[in-house]
Amino acid sequence: MSVPLTLLGLLEREPSHGYDLKRDYDAFFGRGKPLPFGQVYSTLSRLARDGKVVISDVAPGAGPDRKRYIITDVGATEVEQWLTQPVDPEPHLQTVLFAKVVLALMLDRPAAEYLDTQRSAHLHRMRELTEIKRAGSLVDALLADHGLYHLEADLRWIEMTGARLDALRKEVRP
């Protein structure tokens, strides 16, 4: 999971304080593994250093000053590129793909198109593995089978998620 890109996507939805970003990240993406506050603020500092976010205002808080972060055009471009590029079709990519689908829906982007792009990348990789299985040794065939079974499961997830996009949109876009 790309924490910086996910935080940028949340900021594209609306300017936010670090606390609010952590809350939203944990609610949608960090189930069972909340994002540490230190990681949120160090990531936001790096994003600001790299020109992907700016601080719009600073207000005193009970502890440190509360900074409100806004995504820049550079950050928004990076989110757009990240969302539209398929993830390398490898086992256990659901966390990244799930984050992309949820953020696409939050940002009113074409999540179904992203799923279609990912499906195509998976099918391409499955063809490659099938050729390895056909032409390779038993070890190659077994490793290819392992990859194929995981990719098949991913494809089932992509299909099921595609069928549920409208319901998920209602859940993530109040």
What does this entry look like structurally?
- It comes from Micromonospora taraxaci.
- Pfam families: PadR (PF03551).
- This is PadR family transcriptional regulator.
- Residues 7-80 form the Transcription regulator PadR N-terminal domain.
- InterPro entries: Tscrpt_reg_PadR_N, WH-like_DNA-bd_sf, WH_DNA-bd_sf.
- The chain is mainly alpha-helical and 174 residues long.
- It folds into 2 domains: 3-84, Orthogonal Bundle (Arc Repressor Mutant, subunit A), CATH 1.10.10.10; 96-172, no CATH class.
- The protein is 68% helix and 9% strand.
- The chain contains 8 helices and 3 strands; from the N terminus they run H-E-H-H-E-E-H-H-H-H-H.
- It has a 3-stranded antiparallel sheet.
- The two termini are 24 Å apart.
- The mean pLDDT is 90.
Give the topology.
Blueprint: H1 3-13, E1 16-17, H2 18-28, H3 37-49, E2 53-59, E3 66-71, H4 73-84, H5 94-106, H6 111-135, H7 138-163, H8 165-172
Antiparallel strand pairs: 1-3, 2-3
Helix pairs in contact: 1-3, 1-4, 1-5, 2-3, 5-6, 6-7
Q: Which stretches of 5+ consecutive residues score pLDDT under 50?
A: none
The tally of beta strands, per DSSP, is 3
Shape estimate: elongated
Quaternary status of these chains? single chain
What would the CATH topology of the largest domain be?
Answer: Arc Repressor Mutant, subunit A
CATH class descriptor of the largest domain: Mainly Alpha
CATH architecture of the largest domain: Orthogonal Bundle
Mean pLDDT: 90
* Strands ordered across the widest β-sheet: 1-3-2
Q: What is the radius of gyration computed over CA atoms, rounded to a whole number of angstroms?
A: 19 Å
The topology string of helices and strands comes to HEHHEEHHHHH
- Beta-strand residue fraction: 5-15%
